[in-house]
């Protein structure tokens, strides 16, 4: 898994996926592994595959804020703002002191035309990440 992570960091998603396939054979119930596989698909702009892998990761580790965050990020990218709101809200409940989560939530709320709550989320993001 470490080799795949290094390849992923350098943007070589195909090689990383190959390494992760080997890791999945021995540890198929690893949420971090499925999260990494998903983000490789995200890097390749294969968003449906990314969501599928992230949903498996969230099933395995429902309280992992990174998986919730990544699901929110992928849904934002796909312009599925209600779904992005759902997963980003879950990530904020798990990790309430991270300003970036509030910023992404504000983006989703802006697209959902909830200006008042979007403004509150932006203000919270600024408050946390000065």
Automatic annotation (TrEMBL):
This is Bardet-Biedl syndrome 4 protein homolog. Keywords: Repeat, TPR repeat. TPR repeats lie at residues 31-64, 65-98. It comes from Branchiostoma floridae. The lineage of its organism: Eukaryota, Metazoa, Chordata, Cephalochordata, Leptocardii. It holds the Pfam family TPR_16. It comes from the Eukaryota. The gene is LOC118417869. Belongs to the BBS4 family.
